[in-house]
Amino acid sequence: MKPAPPDRCRVLEVGCGDGMNLISLALAxxxxxxxxxxxxxxxxxxxxxxxxxLGLSNVRLIPLDLMEYEPHGPFxxxxxxxxxxxxx
Length: 88
Ligand SMILES: C[S@@+](CC[C@H](N)C(=O)[O-])C[C@H]1O[C@@H](n2cnc3c(N)ncnc32)[C@H](O)[C@@H]1O
Description:
The chain has a 4-stranded parallel β-sheet with strand order 3-2-1-4, covered by helices on one side. The chain has a domain of 56 residues. It is globular. It is α/β, with parallel strands linked by helices. It contains 2 helices and 4 strands; from the N terminus they run βαβαββ. It is 26% helix and 22% strand. It binds S-adenosylmethionine (SAM).
């Protein structure tokens, strides 16, 4: 395997909540490109206000059901932390 360098990767988090995982990564590694999707628009709005406050341009937080999401991929890493999908 030749994994992408974590400090310069493209990362997606499904069920990102308020995006705190991605915001932390984006702050620590300015060269990453991070995208998060979550159904909870209030959580996304909270994260987005933090993104704006911090002036981060490398994080996108998208309020959407994962089932309707069209990835702006490809991504090097996909995080699904605390996310349980009960699909049919
Ligand atoms: C326990 S939280 C985990 C948040 C974050 N990943 C973390 O580690 O802090 C699970 C999240 O999954 C989201 N979620 C559940 N079903 C979803 C779906 N179909 N599409 C997008 N997000 C979903 C919930 O809104 C919730 O914010």
